[in-house]
């Protein structure tokens, strides 16, 4: 309960500051928070939830899942093979340096403006934190445990599951958390250009139509989605890395 209160304390405090600071505002472009909250339910708790919000979240989920699969698989292969790591490092550094928004026109040419393009944009940014953290986690595996696996002839899938992935899992989860934040940003960016639906598209439509309170309500919704995703990820992380946190806690106590 204390962790939950601590987690939500700052967002609630920021909303309170926003409410007080914007109260009585007559600026057309910076309406009071009370007005934004007033239009929030009718704007998002209706057809737009099904037509715009849910499709955006589905694309984010697909892009994030693909990034995990590609990043972990490639990271394990590269991390366990020194020659391959040396060969691919320049290429990976080159590709990682390309900002994903710059690839939007390329993906439009390749995949059109449908869901595939938006998923590709998300994957192009999310895959790197997962891949690089997986490589780092695999390389940092305990040498004593590696020697033990060799001594007991633990190889193949058994070694991959119980030694390689388990040793790298804290780093993999750290990369996945970064990827989730990047994915939410790229979800919006992919919908700002050449889109006909989605949360980012709708916010842009509100902006061009000078529906300013509705636009701000979309920004607020994105913040809420970010907080909810962070909470859900923490719950999954706690379950997946329960053994790791337990070992760390025992080590600190001893």
Automatic annotation (TrEMBL):
GO cellular component term, pick one: plasma membrane
Domain spans labelled ABC transmembrane type-1: 53-237
Source organism of the structure: Virgisporangium ochraceum
Main location (coarse class): membrane
One Pfam family this sequence matches: BPD_transp_1
Subcellular location: Cell membrane
Topology relative to the membrane: Multi-pass membrane protein
Name of the featured protein: Nitrate ABC transporter permease
Transmembrane helix in keyword set: yes
């Amino acid at each position: 309960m204390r962790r939950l209160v601590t987690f939500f304390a700052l967002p609630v405090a920021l909303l309170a500051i926003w409410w007080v600071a914007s109260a009585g505002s007559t600026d057309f472009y910076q309406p009071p928070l009370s007005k934004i909250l007033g239009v929030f339910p009718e704007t998002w708790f209706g057809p737009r939830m099904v037509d715009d919000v849910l499709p955006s979240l589905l694309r984010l989920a697909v892009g994030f899942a693909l990034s995990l699969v590609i990043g972990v698989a490639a990271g394990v292969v590269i991390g366990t093979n020194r020659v391959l790591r040396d060969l691919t490092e320049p290429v990976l550094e080159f590709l990682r340096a390309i900002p994903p928004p710059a690839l939007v026109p390329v993906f439009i040419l390749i995949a059109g403006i449908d869901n595939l393009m938006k998923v590709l944009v998300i994957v192009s940014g999310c895959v790197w934190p997962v891949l690089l953290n997986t490589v780092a986690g695999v390389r940092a595996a305990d040498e004593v445990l590696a020697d033990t696996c060799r001594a007991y002839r633990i190889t193949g899938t058994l070694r991959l599951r119980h030694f390689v992935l388990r040793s790298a899992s804290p780093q993999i989860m750290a990369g996945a958390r970064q990827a989730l934040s990047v994915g939410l940003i790229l979800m919006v960016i992919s919908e700002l250009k050449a889109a006909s639906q989605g949360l980012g598209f709708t916010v842009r439509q509100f902006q061009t139509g000078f529906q300013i309170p509705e636009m701000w309500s979309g920004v607020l919704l994105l913040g809420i989605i970010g907080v909810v995703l962070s909470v859900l990820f923490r719950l999954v992380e706690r379950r997946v890395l329960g053994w790791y946190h337990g070992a760390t806690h025992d080590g600190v106590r001893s």
